[in-house]
Write a structure and sequence with these properties.
Blueprint lengths: L1 H17 E4 L3 E7 L2 E6 L2 E4 L5 E8 L2 E12 L5 E12 L2 H6 L4 H18 L3 H6 L1 H16 L4 E12 L2 H83 L3 H22 L12 H18 L4
Antiparallel strand pairs: 1-4, 2-3, 2-5, 6-7, 7-8
Helix pairs in contact: 3-5, 7-8
């Protein structure tokens, strides 16, 4: 009975040792008599007890690895404290087991040395502007060497770039000066645009005033011309009517009477002025001769119209 129990226990141990259940996204490396034999895939697997053993267990998931902060020197001899994170994945369990004694330490150290090399080729300002380039170059440098370790480097990200306090202060002063410069340029551009707008407005206003004055002068000239024309036409019509009236029967007698009345009115006005000395013609026939002369002029003026 005791022998049966012992056999059952040995069988149970044997079965338990021979059955291996590998979780998803994992790979177990099996050694047979101390030599690499196979890598167990996820699921149910069987091995030979006491001959085969699971020597290494690897996770095939993407692993984030925090790369310790380090001091890097740029091309212009400026110290930078750089902190980053590396993402990698085990792609070959056999190489990951036997290619390096500790692939995590190897990848970490290689990331630090590659980062120092890349930073050393750049100036300080470029390190802040070209983070993507730095990340890509670090990944490329690590990935070439990590193939022998069964590891695939997916990406590297710089978390922080910290220059010394003196450099930070100088950079802050530079940024402040640059902002003040842009503010002064913007203010001067605003004043320049203001002067341009004022000059343009004054020029347009002057042109508008000159155009208005020009149009006003044209309108005045046209109005004066129309007025002169109207007066001339009215005068001509009046003369024509007077001439027509003179040619009518009794017209000349009316003219003589009118001339005589004007002469008498003229003498009356002169006589009414107390400061004027009136000299009366000794011969009143001179008045009639004056009227006769006026009538001759009237006849001479209207004779061509007959």
């Amino acid at each position: 009975m005791e022998i049966a129990i012992v056999l059952i226990v040995i069988a149970a141990i044997f079965i338990k040792s021979s059955i291996k259940v590998v979780p998803q996204q994992n790979a177990w490396v099996v050694e047979r008599l101390g030599k690499y034999h196979t890598a167990l895939a996820p699921g149910l697997n069987f091995i030979v007890p006491f001959i085969d053993k699971v020597a290494y267990q690897h996770s095939l998931k993407e692993i984030p690895l925090d790369v310790p902060s380090q001091i890097c020197i740029t091309r212009d001899n400026t110290q930078l404290q750089v902190d980053g994170i590396l993402y990698f994945q085990v792609t070959d369990p056999m190489r990951a087991s036997y290619g390096s004694s500790n692939y995590i330490v190897a990848v970490t150290q290689l990331a630090q040395t590659s980062l120092r090399s890349v930073i050393g080729k750049l100036e300080l300002d470029k390190t802040f502007e070209e983070r993507d380039i730095i990340n890509a170059q670090v990944v490329q440098a690590i990935d070439e060497a990590a193939l022998n370790w069964g590891v695939k480097v997916l990406r590297y990200e710089i978390k922080d770039l910290t220059p010394p306090k003196e450099i930070l202060h100088a950079m802050q002063q530079q940024i402040t000066a640059e902002r003040e410069k842009r503010a002064l340029i913007a203010a001067s551009e605003g004043r320049r645009q203001e002067q341009i707008n004022i000059a343009t407005g004054e020029r347009e206003a002057f042109i508008a005033r000159s155009e208005g004055e020009k149009q006003a002068a044209i309108n005045n000239a046209q109005g004066e011309a129309a007025s002169i024309t109207a007066v001339a036409e009215a005068t001509a019509q009046a003369i024509e009517r007077v001439a027509a009236a003179i040619r009518q029967p009794g017209g000349q007698e009316a003219v003589q009477l009118k001339v005589a009345e004007r002469a008498v009115d003229a003498y009356a006005k002169v006589a009414a002025d107390a400061t004027t000395t009136l000299i009366v013609p000794g011969n009143m026939t001179e008045v009639s001769s004056l009227i006769a002369s006026a009538m001759k002029m009237v006849n001479a003026t209207h004779s061509p119209a007959r």
